[in-house]
Write a structure and sequence with these properties.
Layout (H helix, E strand, L loop, with lengths): L2 H47 L15 E4 L5 E5 L3 E3 L9 H11 L11 H13 L9 H11 L6 H21 L2 H11 L1 E5 L2 E4 L1 H9 L8 H8 L14 H17 L5 H8 L17 H15 L1 H6 L3 E4 L3 H11 L8 E7 L6 E6 L27 H10 L7 E4 L3 E3 L11 E3 L8 E4 H7 L2 H11 L1 H11 L22 H12 L3 E3 L4 E6 L2 E3 L9 E3 L3 H17 L14 E6 L5 E7 L4 E7 L22 H13 L22 H5 L74
Helix pairs in contact: 1-5, 2-8, 2-9, 4-5, 4-6, 8-9, 9-10, 13-20, 14-16, 14-17, 14-19, 15-19
Length: 735
């Protein structure tokens, strides 16, 4: 073979290899292009297959509900797992916006929802280093937080999530401005968890970690918060302060790199500590019993979720000064043993202006979350006789109607007893006091007279009156209820409202503790349950007769320790239960009705005998004193004047058995007794002594400084006999 032939053969062989190489390259190129086109097609299909932004409902992060006193002072927040306090974008400080953009999305103001340059940069970094950097923009993160809540991170589904987020982010930025996006992000991103509660949004985070409004954040504080959303648990300033500081300094360095601050400023701030000031802003509260009561009221109307997350500003009727006055008055029980509770209602509208007790709020030993003022149901004793008295006047019975006080007494006929099951009772002193009219019987709080009165009226009528006054606790319509023997007792709140009906000219109010509600959008229409509701239950001529007798009782009966110096318009009634377990004073001035209870919380029935300077605690001792000490401050600017009735009180001869015939042998344990009499219209039988006895300072707890014929009101302040049921419910005992 010639030389030239050999050269041609070599060229043919080489050319063949080159062709095969070129062919292989072209095939690979086609495969790559095809794969790229397929991948691009898959990306487009994935993006288009996802729902449009308009199909999503933005997640409502909500906001904590804030409860305020009547003067606007914060009582506290209704607690929730998420701490949320949204802020207007315009109120967010510039430094917080800059810090967040610097560390999370430095090209935020340049892209349109998706930062392709950032995605490539993140991919390169992740491929060449051990670090992991995401390519999500602030807008994409907002889409995830606010709309999709999809947190899938790995596999094909993770890529699909990213693609769909990118598409939705572009749609979001087509509809909203950059400031809107940034503001929404800062209000919805989580900033860590503390004490089981997560701070959602920079408003809550600023309060949680620095005890300040977000608008007052400093550079180092804003930098710390901006660095937390990437990994809230890892960058917790409580659990990992060193890691949090390093992350904060990273934010400061990035802000300097982007020109938001100078490098000198960044270095100076990096040397500082975190500066935490965690004062538990959201957990701090005053008047926690009131706060719980308001929460229960809100839940009744809105449900638990809306109450916790509704972002309401709730203005209550509670007067903080009156709360202080109440505690100061109840402090006289310090070291004595019993607890006390006070409720005051404004008779003109039903506003609960005071709801206080001596208990300490809490769940540890010696504390309680049980609200004695609103939840505590105790036997009311003789303070419930007012319901029988009002029933008598409602039926047209004259205050001058007389009965014979007998003790011990046994009623063996219906409706109060039977021959086989008589109603047995006695007066506090154990002796009868002879003939007395309803006025004197009330001042003496005489059980015998009131037992005869309810027997004549019918216990069902007294139950009806109690309901008309506003009592909602269980009533059976039995005679013992007129002397305070209720199945489950009654609360101070109910008693205050019932007595408000008397001083309010017969108008029953619906008690309310909420007077106004607002949200960020403005006032909320007040639901019907908290609007003022006044119902005419009695004529003011009828209630005026009760007012006059209870005013006399405060001035010269069992309630003299309630006297407010300089006040000529006050009235009230004492109440004491068997063995002095519960003691009450419930009374009113023209402006306020107040109930005071004294006793031992818990199911155990603890006697208060010997606890009033060696004497027994009854309604005329500490309860009346507390009432007077408290109310004299409440009405310091004037207790007001009684309103003249506009409707007449018409009475007629009473045809009740005991009022007509008096008690006979089968009705008493004393043999023949003087018959009761019914004076004619307009006549009266005044008591022999219409003032408190001179027994050393007006003591009305049972002492008698007069002779046997004198009037000793304390001797007849007595317990109900044989109350049905369990004697009342109360908070569970400690432990």
């Amino acid at each position: 073979m010639s030389h030239s032939a050999r050269i041609r053969r070599r060229r043919q062989k080489g050319g063949g290899a080159a062709k095969w190489f070129l062919l292989a390259f072209l095939v690979l190129l086609l495969i790559g292009v095809s794969a790229g086109l397929a991948a691009a097609g898959w990306v487009v299909r994935t993006a288009n297959d996802g729902p449009a932004l308009s199909t999503y409902t933005p997640r409502n992060a909500g906001a904590l509900t804030e409860v305020l006193a009547s003067d606007g002072t914060r009582l506290g927040f209704i607690q929730n797992d998420d701490l949320v306090q949204p802020m207007a974008t315009s109120a967010l400080p510039k430094v917080m916006k800059q810090a967040t953009v610097a560390i999370e999305d430095e090209r935020f103001y340049k892209h349109t929802g998706v930062d392709y340059e950032g995605i490539i940069r993140a991919a390169v970094k992740n491929a060449t280093t051990d670090g992991k950097q995401g390519g999500s923009t602030l807008t994409m993160q907002l889409v995830r937080n606010l709309y999709t809540q999809d947190v899938t991170r790995s596999g094909i589904e993770g890529y699909k999530r990213k693609i769909r987020e990118a598409r939705l982010a572009q749609q979001l930025e087509e509809e909203h401005s950059k400031e809107w996006v940034l503001g929404k992000y800062l209000n919805t991103v989580p900033y860590g968890t503390y004490g089981g509660q997560s701070a959602i949004g920079v408003g809550a985070a600023a309060r949680l970690y620095f005890n300040k409004s977000a608008r007052d954040l400093t550079l180092r504080e804003a930098a710390m918060l901006a660095g937390m959303p990437q990994a809230p648990s890892q960058y917790s300033p409580v659990d990992n302060p060193e890691g949090t500081k390093a992350r904060r300094n990273e934010v400061l360095g990035k802000m300097a790199e982007l020109g938001y601050i100078t490098r000198e400023k960044a270095r100076a701030e990096m040397k500082k500590g975190l500066g935490l000031n965690m004062e538990r802003y959201f957990q701090r509260a005053r008047e926690r019993y009131v706060l719980d009561y308001v929460k229960s009221e809100l839940i009744k109307e809105y449900g638990a979720d809306a109450t916790k997350r509704g972002g309401f500003r709730v203005y209550t009727t509670i007067n903080l000064k009156y709360q202080q006055y109440a505690r100061a008055a109840m402090s006289q029980l310090n070291g004595v043993g019993p607890s006390s509770a006070i409720v005051t209602i404004d008779p003109k509208n039903g506003d609960i202006v005071t709801m206080a007790s001596t208990q300490q709020y809490g769940r540890s030993k010696g504390k309680s979350t049980f609200n004695l003022a609103a939840q505590g149901h105790r036997q009311p004793g003789s303070s419930f006789k007012t319901m029988a008295l009002l029933t008598a006047f409602r039926e047209g019975v004259s205050p001058s109607t007389t009965y014979t006080s007998i003790s011990p007494m046994k009623i063996a006929k219906p409706p109060c007893g039977s021959p086989t099951s008589p109603w047995e009772l006695k007066t506090y002193g154990g002796k009868g006091a002879g003939s007395m009219d309803l006025r004197r019987a009330t001042l003496a709080s005489d059980n015998s007279v009131y037992a005869q009165l309810v027997s004549d009226l019918g216990p069902d009528k007294v139950k009806e009156t109690a309901r008309m006054m506003g009592i909602k606790s269980k009533l059976l319509g039995v005679c013992a209820e007129s002397l305070g023997g209720l199945t489950d007792g009654v609360s101070p709140l109910e008693m205050a409202n019932a007595y408000a009906t008397i001083v309010n000219g017969g108008y029953r109010n619906r008690p309310r503790v909420i007077k106004k509600i607002e949200t960020r959008e403005g006032p909320v229409k007040l639901p019907a349950r908290w609007r003022v509701k006044r119902t005419k239950a009695f004529s003011d001529g009828v209630t005026n007769e009760v007012v006059k007798i209870l005013a006399a009782n405060a001035a010269g009966g069992t309630g003299t320790k309630s006297i407010i110096p300089g006040c000529t318009a006050q009235g009230g009634k004492t109440g004491t239960t068997d063995k002095n377990i519960d003691a009450w004073f419930v009374g009113f001035t023209p402006k306020f009705a107040t109930a005071v209870w004294v006793g031992f919380p818990g199911s155990a029935k603890i006697s208060m005998n010997g606890m009033y300077f060696g004497s027994n605690i009854d309604g005329g001792t500490y309860p009346a004193q507390i009432w007077g000490d408290y109310m004299k401050k409440v009405v310091a600017k004037g207790c007001g004047k009684w309103k003249e009735p506009t409707e007449p009180f018409n009475s007629q001869p009473f045809q009740g058995k005991f009022a007509r015939e008096g008690a006979k042998d089968e009705d008493s344990g004393e043999g023949d007794q003087q018959q009761g009499t019914q004076p004619g219209p307009g006549t009266t039988t005044p008591p022999s002594n219409d003032t408190s006895p001179d027994n050393g300072g007006g003591n009305d707890n049972g002492g008698n400084g007069n002779d046997d014929t004198g009037f000793d009101p304390g001797a007849y302040e007595t317990q109900p006999q044989g109350p049905p049921g369990n004697g009342g419910t109360q908070a569970p005992g400690d432990g």
